[in-house]
Each structure stands twice: as structure tokens, then as C-alpha cells.
Amino acid sequence: MSAIQKNVEQTSKSYSASFTQGHLALPPAKKYLVLTCMDARIDPARAFGIELGDAHVIRNAGASAVDALRSIVISEQLLGTNEIILVKHTGCGMLTFKNEDAYGVVGKNLGQNEKADSKGLASASYHTTVVVVKEGDREEKKVREERGLTCDNNNQNREEALAELKAKKLDFLPFPELEKAVEDDVAFLKGSKLVPESVTISGWVYEVESGETRRVV
Ligand SMILES: [Zn+2]
């Protein structure tokens, strides 16, 4: 068992021992959803004042409304939420690369063997891109094992990984400007026919440096 798994197991024991909120209903009590980034420095419950059972919290790389649309529609249409709080943040990794950079790093790393891979990850200059790559890396490894391919043929692996990326037309959805990205995502949600006009939508920026959340739109 990994140290992370042990931590889950141990925490579960103490958490469940004093847990008293098993009565909560499935739909969020305060009928809203928060969309924010998966960044490890954001604690949505504490930073945005969310009590257990109050709201849906949807997280992905960059707090992308495009990426989160499936969950947003489920939250609103099936589980009754009617307000969206969208929160991007300073220092977001999505500000640091472009799609072509991500494609390059993914292709490079997926073509390497385990040893070279961990070395490459540690020394890669695209720090945040590498986080994305690590996630994709796990998925791609699974695919490779299923196909019975070895890591010996780096070029073939790399080509296949890139071909799969292109076939999926995977857009990593990076953005060059923080406030504009918040505005664009709010506009995307307001313009989507899947989000009714009755849904209240606001866009915010969380500052990882100060812990402050300020409204943009
Ligand atoms: Zn982020």
C-alpha cells in the first residue's frame, strides 16, 4: 500500500468515527455549484464558505466551463442547482503553455520508458504541463498495456500517443489572460442553450498568494 493510500485509510477511520452528517440529501441544499481549478492550493470549502451538502464543487484544470459542461448540466437539470460561481485563480498552470507545447511534451514523455520518464518529469521545464502529462501518462500506459506493447519502441509509442491525441482532438484549453478567461467562460455559459437564463452566473479570481477571492464579472 502506498503512503497516500495509507493516509486515506487512516484519515477515514478518524473522520468516520466522528461523522454525524449521513442524513444529508443528494441535491445541494443551497442549490448552487462552484466551478474551480484542480490546483492543489485551493481549498474550496474554506476559501468560498461551502458547508457539506450545500453545493456541487466541479474541478478541472483551469476551471474550464467548456470542460465542465457535462457536470454543469447534470447539476442544474437533474439535481436542481440554479447558480454558478466560477472561480479561476492567479498562478494557474493553464496560463503557462499553449496547446502545441502540451502536445510536444505529451508526445515526448509518452515515448519514454519508466526510468527516463520520471527523470524527464522531474527536470521538465513545463512544470504545470507536466502535471497534465502525468495524468494523461497514466491513461496512456493503461492503453499500451491493453494492446500488449512494450516501452522499448519509443518512437512507435510516441507516434501512437500523438495519433490518439489528434484523433481525440484533445484541446488542453489553456488561456493567456486570467481575467479575460473568466469573462470568456461566463460568456460561454450565458450563451449556451444548455444553461437556462434563469441560472445566476458570476466569475471570480482566487489569489493563491493572499487567499482572497475577488469578483471579476
Ligand atoms: Zn489552475
Automatic annotation (TrEMBL):
Binding note for cofactor: Binds 1 zinc ion per subunit.
Catalytic activity: hydrogencarbonate + H(+) = CO2 + H2O
EC number annotated for this UniProt entry: 4.2.1.1
Uppermost EC category: lyase
Annotated keywords: Lyase, Metal-binding, Zinc
Names of the cofactor(s): Zn(2+)
UniProt xrefs under Pfam families: Pro_CA (PF00484)
Top-level taxonomic group: Eukaryota
Protein's UniProt keywords contain Electron transport: no
Amino-acid positions noted as binding Zn(2+) in the UniProt annotation, renumbered to this chain: C37, D39, H89, C92
SMART domains for the chain: Pro_CA
GO molecular function: carbonate dehydratase activity; zinc ion binding
Family, similarity comment: Belongs to the beta-class carbonic anhydrase family.
Role description: Reversible hydration of carbon dioxide.
Stated name of the protein: Carbonic anhydrase
Naturally occurring in which organism (per UniProt): Triangularia setosa
Lineage of origin: Eukaryota, Fungi, Dikarya, Ascomycota, Pezizomycotina
